[in-house]
Amino acid sequence: MTKTERAHYISRRLAGLYPQTPIPLDHRDAYTLLVAVVLSAQCTDRRVNLVTPALFARAATPAAMARLPVAEINAIVRPCGLAPRKAQAIAGLSRLLVERHGGAVPRTFAELEALPGVGHKTASVVMAQAFGVPTFPVDTHIHRLARRWGLSGGRSVEQTEADLKRLFPREDWNRLHLRIIFYGREHCTARGCDGTGCEICRTVRPGRRPERRNAPRRPEATRA
């Protein structure tokens, strides 16, 4: 298969497997989604969803969160890991939303990425899932599978994002990035598939040698 043929097959197969693309992080609005995405850095969505009800019961708006002591936020989000840094980011971005944006989550990449703890991937998730803007957020699953399936050289997250945007129609980006994540969690995991075992790997890269078991990289480990 050529790269274009692989992309077409993958898109069709994932659409068949995942016709619905529910947002994995529980949220009420753009603000609670933003906070949940910040918490999800190096943490599972399931754990974030266990933590956020208690956090949002205390503060579900930027103004309310900005009034909470950072120590209280830290105590609530501790199970997500990296709690001190995430608590500081949540407090800081909430304060800036009130001071600069009238308590609303901005709708541009530049304004989102200017907030504490918000990198390009986090901004992309919010733009896609809160505002419906076509983006292609690249997490560890997408970065790994794009390389595994021969869609990108995988040298950097930025390169993977650019390669995938060139391969797939813009109108498919928001659903497709979630479908790849779902597949990477369920069928083509870092340890459960060596690049030759799952259905898509066998189809798009037949005869490929198994991968060596190296520790998976963590894209955007310092900024979500």
Explain what this protein looks like in three dimensions.
By secondary structure, the protein is mostly helical. It folds into two domains: 3-20 and 136-204, Helix-hairpin-Helix base-excision DNA repair enzymes (C-terminal) (Endonuclease Iii, domain 2, Orthogonal Bundle); 30-129, Hypothetical protein, domain 2 (Endonuclease III, domain 1), CATH 1.10.340. It has helices at 3-17, 30-39, 45-58, 62-67, 70-77, 83-101, 109-113, 120-129, 140-148, 157-167, 173-186, 199-204.
Protein topology:
Layout: H1 3-17, H2 30-39, H3 45-58, H4 62-67, H5 70-77, H6 83-101, H7 109-113, H8 120-129, H9 140-148, H10 157-167, H11 173-186, H12 199-204
Helix pairs in contact: 1-11, 2-8, 5-6, 9-10
End-to-end CA span: 34 Å
Multimeric state: single chain
Structural class per helix/strand content? mainly alpha
Number of domains: 2
Kindly provide the name of the CATH class of the largest domain: Mainly Alpha
Helix run count: 12
* Strand proportion: under 5%
CATH architecture of the largest domain: Orthogonal Bundle
Using the coordinates shown, work out and report the CATH topology of the largest domain: Endonuclease III, domain 1
Helix content: 55-70%
Shape: elongated
Order of helices and strands: HHHHHHHHHHHH
| Mean of all residue-level pLDDT scores | 93
Low-confidence stretches: 215-224
Descriptors for this entry?
single chain, 57% helix, 224 residues, Endonuclease III, domain 1, elongated, Endonuclease Iii, domain 2, 2 domains, mainly alpha
